[in-house]
Amino acid sequence: MTTLSSTPEVPLRSSLDSLPGVDSEEQRASDVSLDRVKRKRVLKKNTRLRIARYTAILVFLGAWQLTAVFLAPVFLSTPIRAIVAFYDLMANGTIERAVGVSLFILAAGIVCAGFFGMALGTIMGRTQTLERALDPLVSFGNATPSIALLPLMVIWFGQGKLAAVVFIFIIGFWQMVVNTLAGMRVVRLGYRDVGTSFGMTKWEQTFRIYLPATQPFIFAGARIALAQCIVGMILAEQELGQGGLGDIVNSYGTYFQTDNLIAAIGATCMLALLLFASLRLLQRRKFPWIQATSASSRSSR
Amino acid sequence: MSLGTAQVNNMNRVKAHKHRKARNRVSYIVLPLVAVVILIGLWELVGHFTNPLFLSSPIAVARAFANILTHRQTVSSLLQSLREMYLGLVLGVTIGFTIGIFIGRFESVNNVASPFVNVLNATPLIVVIPLLVIWTGIGMQARVVFTMLVTTFPMLLNTAAGVRNVHKGYVEVAATLGLSERATLFKVAIPAAVPYVLAGLRSSLSLAIIGMVVGEMEVSSIGVGWLLIQYGDGLQTAFLLALLMITSIFGVLNVTALKIVERTVFKWTTSTR
Amino acid sequence: MTSSFEASAGLGTSPATYGSTNAFEPPVLKVRGINKVFSGQERDVVALESVDLDVAKGEFISLVGPSGCGKTTLLRIIDGLDFADSGTVELEGKRLDGVSQDMAYVFQDINLLPWRSVRGNVEIGLEARGVAKAERQRIAREFLEMVGLKDVMDVPPYTLSGGMQQRVGVARALAVRPKVLLMDEPFGQLDNFTREALQAEVAALWSQLGITIVFVTHDVDEAIFLSDRIVVMHRNPGQVVEILDVHLKRPRTQAEFRAEPETIELRSKITALLRSQEGGL
User: Fold this and answer.
1) What was the pLDDT predicted at B271?
2) What is the mean pLDDT of residues C211-231?
3) Which of A155, A239, A280 to mutate to test the interface with B (most CBs of B within 10 A)?
């Protein structure tokens, strides 16, 4: 009888590249057990697929460029104009400054969210009384669109960076609590038996069995929290200024500087991609067992 | 040991077990109540010592809550928000589901689409809002399109994963029974993907509220998001907190509704997974 | 409150066996009057009903029975992983309450912790006993060497084959130097060849280390090959039906023991006992 009203995200694929698709063909191509003819055929297929992929990207960019013929540049700009604008903004340091500010706010918020969220999730997961008492509150907190808290944060912490950091903290916090708690609840009975059988204390079991076993859920939560915190970061900057990415996106929009706007959107996009990639890299390097033992990664077509 | 005493012992054990169960049920109700009472008490206490601008008392918030739900202007704002949210959600989910099926089913489509999908998915779509405003102005369209964009991706990714990961055995059953490609898709692959689709719908639902609030905060003169900004600017903390609670209730209702649908319409998904 | 099987088990009325049950030494493990009921939605299942068992020091004893006869539950209760509704477990005359540091458990699904290396898995029991790091490493190396896995000490466990994983499981349990080793269908998930190889290894380790082993299995031949005594169990309610002595001389080999007349006799006797229960459901 669990009362968590919103089901936490279990580790689920979050991008198409992690699907067994083109990339698994590459892996199969490198498989030693494949005979040569087959390998050649797979490689050929890969090349074909890659050509199709890059052609599509080029066609997209070409079509975008061609819209300039009949659309005023203020609507869509063009890839060339956007790239030029991006170069200029990089050259005069606008983007670097904005990224620096944004990253600072984001990192401060999300690190706190990760630490305190995991701490509360762990304590709740290991103390039945606390779990039962706080479960409805956590569900309610998680169901609240934390994004709506921004005006309140401004009242409490003023129009500054502190409001933005606390705002991001709250957004990430609930997700981390919910995912840590969900992971604690489903720690494999067998792992728990190992701890019990060797006579570990409750404290030892928490740190040597429960927390490590919960890592897949923690990482899944971190991915979702990161996505939501980036949104929170942009929103906070749009409302509060402070010169971050959200701030410059907003002002370029307001003044119809579409070239700069698209360049800034591109920068935000790259930053987000980079952050997600770092998280994935951290997981692969430091916690390789998550990937290796998840059932989905073994599924082959 | 005679059988008689064994049975008595047995019955005692069963009784004790039932007793324990009943106590469990009580603790599920009592403990959260205690926590809520403590929280409200703390709130009231802190409220006494701080400026009501920072934290209004629970009573003031309750009054504001009633106020919001009885005034025509605020109620119409709430309704407008709901309308936009569900319109965007329906559009986004439909588009995501359709594209997701194609991407999951055809490797060529996946191959071409995945760079675009991956980049758009990683982009915090909120940065696109100024662009949407340039295209459609600051009306309802921009907000609906934004909610639509936000809700498309979870649905798309999950549907694609679901269709792609259909248990190989099911597909082979369909093949040996001579089902056509099309029949396999509609009778095997899509039904088998339902658990994934529901997971996608769940994410889309929670993102729809965020999309609605954000869209209205950025571009609007109506709706929940706009009201939040107004209350914030006017330092009307009681109203702000009351509206936050209303938003949470939206969220809880959405999730609960989906859960009921899952339990009744798609009962099998919970039993086979 | 003395049941018939207890007499044959603990009090040495059975003929003398080869270095196993000793009538004059008190049993290392003494199980008395264990009851355990699992209450289900519709009806309660009596997993164990007044089960008594004595295990002699240095003995290899197997629990055999159909699934659902409570043999795993009994083993878990002995280790303290589950609690009995009533009854007692005594180790060397001391009544146990909860988990004992003097016993170790080998699990059916192995349960190696994937976030630790092979060596880290073997060390975990030593960590719980507060053994210093250098000493832990030395012991882990020693026992991994004993099961022939010294070369894969630093790899993650999920890269090993099933048989190798269970070797790690055995090393992990042995590393804490238990007085009694509890093994719960440890080879149930392995293929035939691997299973037979591991059976021989466990038999060798048992005689080399001189420990006491309680072994749960549903494989009759496995029980005969390994054991000094075989406890045949019954399901619903889970009870001990009979305890049989195995007199086959050691060391036994997989090739020879199957054809021994005693093996054939024991096998048909146990099979008959198990088959007679089938009507019970």
Assistant:
1) 54
2) 94
3) A155
* Complete edge-to-edge strand list for the sheet that includes strand C103-106: C103-106, C180-184, C212-217, C60-64, C229-234, C239-245
For chain A, positions 114-133, list CB contacts with chain B under 8 A: 129, 132-133
Q: Give the start-to-end residue ranges of the domains of chain B.
A: 1-49, 58-269
Average predicted confidence (pLDDT) for chain B: 83
Q: How far is B15 from chain C (nearest CA, A)?
A: 11
pLDDT at A7: 39
Taking an 8 Å cut-off on Cβ atoms, the answer to whether A196 and C111 are in contact is no
For all residues of chain C together, what is the average pLDDT?
A: 87
* B221 Cβ contact list (under 8 Å, min separation 6): none
Q: What is the model's pLDDT at position B273? A: 40
CA distance A286 to chain C (A): 10
Q: Chain A partners of C107 at a C-beta cutoff of 8 Å?
A: 190, 193-194
- Tell me what pLDDT residue B20 has: 58
Nearest to C145 by CA among C115, C122, C177: C122
Instruction: Tokens for A124, please give them.
Output: 């709740």
Residue B131 half-sphere exposure, CB side, CA atoms within 13 Å? 21
| Fold of the B58-269 domain | MetI-like fold (1.10.3720)
Distance of CA B262 to the CA centre of its chain: 13
Nearest Cα of chain A lies from the Cα of C126 at a distance, in angstroms, of 8
Residue C7 pLDDT > 80: no
Q: Is residue C139 a contact partner of residue C128, using CB atoms and an 8 Å limit?
A: no
In the 8-state DSSP scheme, what is residue A9?
P
Nearest residue to C24 via CA among C11, C6, C9, C8: C11
Asked if B14 and C50 come within 8 Å (Cβ–Cβ), the reply is: no
Mean pLDDT of B196-218: 90
Q: Is the pLDDT of residue B144 over 90?
A: yes
Q: How confident is the model at residue B269 (pLDDT cuts 50, 70, 90)?
A: low
Q: What residues of chain C lie within 8 A of the CB of A289, using their CB? A: 114-115, 156, 158
ipTM of the complex: 0.82
**For residue B30, pLDDT beyond 50:** yes
Structural contact between residues C184 and C105, judged by C-beta atoms closer than 8 angstroms: yes
Contact: C114, A293; criterion CB under 8 Å: yes
Ranges under pLDDT 50 in chain A: 1-15, 17-31, 296-301
pLDDT tens string C31-47:
999 999 988 777 788 88
The pLDDT of residue C19 is above 60: no
- CA torsion angle for A144, A148, A151, A157 (degrees, to 10)? 50
Cβ–Cβ under 8 Å, residues A26 and A49 = no
* Domain C6-102+178-280 CATH (choose: 2.102.10.10, 3.40.50.300, 3.30.70.1150, 3.20.20.70): 3.40.50.300
**Which residues in chain B have their CB less than 8 angstroms from residue A269's CB?**
119, 122-123, 127
Q: How far, in Å, CA of B227 to CA of C173, rounded?
A: 64
Burial class of residue C72, CB neighbours in 10 A (0-12, 13-18, 19+):
buried
Would you say the C-alpha torsion B63, B68, B72, B75 has a positive or negative sign?
A: negative
Which chain B residues touch C if contact means CB-CB below 8 Å?
Answer: 1, 6, 9-10, 13-14, 17
Contact call for A132 and B27, based on CB within 8 A: yes
**For residues B204 and B220, what is the distance between their CA atoms, to the nearest angstrom?**
22
pTM of the model: 0.82
Task: Output phi, psi for A144, to 5 deg.
Answer: -65, 125
C42, C44, C236: best to mutate for the B interface, most B CBs within 10 A: C44
* Domain boundaries, given as residue ranges, for chain C: 6-102+178-280, 111-177
